[in-house]
Amino acid sequence: MDQYEIQIGENRSLTVARVMPDAHWHWLAKGWVDFKATWRFGLLIGIVPVLSAWVMVFGLWYLDMLGFIPAVCGGFALVGPILALGCYQLSRSHEAREAIELNTLLKPRIISPGQVSIIGFVLMLILVIWARLASLLYALASSARQPAPAIDFINFALQTPEGLTMVVVGTLIGAALAAMAYVVSVIAIPLTFDRQVDALTAMLVSVVAVLRNKGAMISFAFNIAMLVGLCLITGFIGLIIVFPWLGYATWHCYRTLITHIDTSESH
């Protein structure tokens, strides 16, 4: 397992490891161990995205815009890493063999809160761009100024050449934006949560980590997408377990790839 060193400040550096392409199974396995050890608190975390998803679906139903559920769910996935901060705290405490209480979850020890917020803003910006592009794409494809009712939207999307083109192009654009968000945040958020690192450097480290471990990181992203997709079939209820599990797994992904930091700060 070779390493790549990155300077993150004066007399401070970190090393990014290269792992085997199947390393994502190890992260998922360790994440499951953490979930079993902290399942009561994990379930509390998992309830948050479920309730948020239900609120979004109810809002779309109330506005008669259910056809936009796939786009909203994709956008919701972009900001998921920010909601997983509690998972990182639980995994870190479990790893350090610290006593885990409700206060551990409610008051996570974020080393660089301002930098985490900056990365969260970047993810929200990507989400806004995706929402605007989805709206523009629908307007161009349908020549409609206002969103159509759910049934009309579904019929247009699946039964007309313009609608099918919109679905294909929209899926490609959404996938590209989701991949961008994943690459810049998958390591950056747990890194700024755990260490004193500025947001720009953390996002650069995340990009380097993904590029040096394309096999493992693509496989990890595929597993995340499949598990979240399965949760949609359950009406989002599956997220109660899957969301904290993936949060724990992401923490172990970070801990495996970022192997060393030269700094005097305490862990």
Automatic annotation (TrEMBL):
Superkingdom assignment: Bacteria
Membrane-spanning residues: 41-62, 68-88, 116-140, 166-193, 220-246
Lineage summary: Bacteria, Pseudomonadati, Pseudomonadota, Alphaproteobacteria, Caulobacterales
Keywords for this protein: Membrane, Transmembrane, Transmembrane helix
InterPro entries cross-referenced by the UniProt entry: DUF2189
The protein's name in its UniProt record: DUF2189 domain-containing protein
